[in-house]
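Predict structure. Chain length: 263.
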Amino acid sequence: MRIEDVDVPRSRAGAEADIVATLRRYGFAWDGDIVRQSDGAERYEAALDTLRASGSAYECACTRRELADAPLGAGGERVYPGTCRAGVPIAYRGRRQRAWRVGVGATSVAFVDRLQGRQEQDLAADVGDFVVRRSDGLYAYQLAVVVDDALQRVTDIVRGADLLASTPRQLLLQRLLGLPEPTYLHVPVAINVAGEKLSKQTGARPLPVEPLPSLVAAWRFLDQPEATSAPRTVAEFWAHALAAWSPRRLPPVAMLPAPARVV
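Prediction complete.
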């Protein structure tokens, strides 16, 4: 179990307790103590030190405003133009706040997703050198998850397809840091009629207090095998789900419209 609260300013008081209570109510279980990314500064700094020592990371004094006109990559992200790659320009050297970026060079990263098939990303063209520590001193998601996946000995990652484009960056970091590479399976993301991912930002409803109907709806949404008889309890649902889970039956798409009653 990992609480991904590395972006401390955006963390909401009580959010962790709500998440843990909801997961327990919905029948999820986990091994060991909860790992919190907000407690991980030392391990992320150690990883950044490794990247610095190998010459893979460099300081960047660019501001967001200066990068606002950078070209867009295939995934819609701004591609860093390499302004500080050969050293911080003289005009920027008075700036105390600096980010750290990983240079991608001419790297193209490919992997086989268990559902989405072969994926390949030209990091230089689609992303550019990416941030691993922000100018405010906070560590970026990409570095934090790679370090913590290795710490928690994660071997298989199952997550939403909205994170598919992040995977090549994480694979590059794993290789630069000498960390194991997990296998990946990116499931379809539930979207509303406007094509937006269901989230708080798009006004999606919170999970109901009663878990069983939502668990069954999610199971059907992912086209998983129905039980012979409808489960009457959360425990019955999970007994069937753990035995019947079939990645081969997952819809091999990145997005799926959510049922109207869920939105």
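Summary: Residues 107 and 123 are 6 Å apart (CA to CA).
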